[in-house]
Amino acid sequence: MDDALNAWTSLHTLPNSAIRILLLAESKCKIFGSVKKNTLKYLYEKHSRENKNFKDFLNLLFESKLVAWESRNKELIRLTFSGYDLLALRSINKKFNITSFGSNIARGKESDLYVAECSSVGSCVIKFYRIGRTSFRDVKRKRSFSKLSSSWLIHSTKAATSEARAYELLKNSEVNVPKFFWRNRHALLLEYIEGKRLSSLEEPELNAELFYQIILQVKHMLKTKFVHVDLNPFNILVSSDRKKVYIIDFPQWVPLTHPNSLFYLSRDLNNVASFFEQKGIRLDREKVINETLNLAKQLIESE
Predict the structure, then answer these.
(1) Count of other CB atoms within 10 angstroms of residue 274
(2) Which one of 151, 221, 227, 303 has the fewest beta carbons within 10 angstroms of its own beta carbon?
(3) pTM value?
């Protein structure tokens, strides 16, 4: 069972005292990356009315793979992705009442997406960030916020916070994005869009018109003083009727006033153009990119 599904199952079986220990572990792991077992025991006995059976409850967390040993001498404890998922799901469930939690619909280097149903918003997607799942070396190279902490909890939460901010900035614009409902910790609750990622479309489904729809979305983003930074075929969703494109995945976005915004914009445009050209679609790449960059320059100068 994967991390999030394990968390969802554990959420309904763990006693409250075990979850309380998990919350206490989180408070320390956010700062230090791990917590001493004796410190965790002290905090639990200090703050819990039912301060017995610490060992039994802690063992339940280990058995459920919600925590793990950080050190070989079994003194330091860390949260697992599954443990952090449980805490996020617990908060989302309290606010939106998750009636079903489905299978994984996308798994990347930095995030996992799951279909869910919530009584207050209907069909939705819960996105969990997994920054550091592969290697922090690449994370630190790509992300400015990674200089602040070596903890994957902090990295993943900051990525989710950055993306949540992007959705808030774009919600009243002409940019097509999924509705953003809420963020908790490293998890985002988003509208479920029926469609496919651009990367998964077959060649007969691709055409120049679709490319120009994407460019129009990029221009709408520019008018909101916004650059995606990581636009590629995996971050573009095409509706089932092929009439609408959505831009998704915004953890690395920058404002148009960022000193490297034109470089990022040019890279985004070339990424998308290259995808279509590799599929045999003829484009006036140079004209489109120059027009879009000129629009960006004009908007920067108008600031």
Answers:
(1) 14
(2) 303
(3) 0.91
